[in-house]
Amino acid sequence: xxxxxxxxxxxxxxxxxxxxxxxxxxxxxxxxxxxxxxxxxxxxxxxxxxxxxxxxxxxxxxxxxxxxxxxxxxxxxxxxxxxxxxxxxxxxxxxxxxxxxxxxxxxxxxxxxxxxxxxxxxxxxxxxxxxxxxxxxxxxxxxxxxxxxxxxxxxxxxxxxxxxxxxxxxxxxxxxxxxxxxxxxxxxxxxxx
Length: 193
What we know:
The protein is mainly beta.
C-alpha cells in the first residue's frame, strides 16, 4: 500500500506535463484530480507553475494534496489517508517541427503520507520525456513517459493530455496518467503569462 500511495503522490503532483497554447513555458496552473490507487479512490488538487529562463530551459514547481474517499482501519485505528507532495525541477525543450516540441524534465519530489497522526516521508525524483504538439490555434496534445524513483522503488508510466484555449490567457486541460497501479484523471485551468 505504501508503494501505491507514493506512486499516487508522484502521479498526482508532478505528472501533469507542461503544455499551453503557442507552446508557452511560463504559466500558473490549478487542477483537481480523481485518483485510483489499485482500486481505492482518492480526490486531490494541485497547483503548479513554470517559468521560461532561456529559449530551451524552464524551471517548474508543484504542490499537490490528496485524500482517500474512505476511511481505513489499520491495527485497530480508523482514519482517512492524506498525501502531500512538493516538487521543484528543470525542463529542457527543443523544437522538432513548427508545431511540435520535444520536452525532458527532471524534478526532485518530497512527499508525505499521513494516517492517524503518523507521517511517512519519501523523497525521490521524477524523470519525464515526451512531446507537446499544437494541433490547431486553440488546441494542444501531449504525451510523456514518466519514471519515478523513490526511497524504496522505481516505477515507469505514461501520461497523455490535451489543452483547449478558452481565451487569450486561460487554457482548460484534461489529462490521464498511469504509473504502477495508480491511475489519475486531472482537470486543470492554466493561466499563461
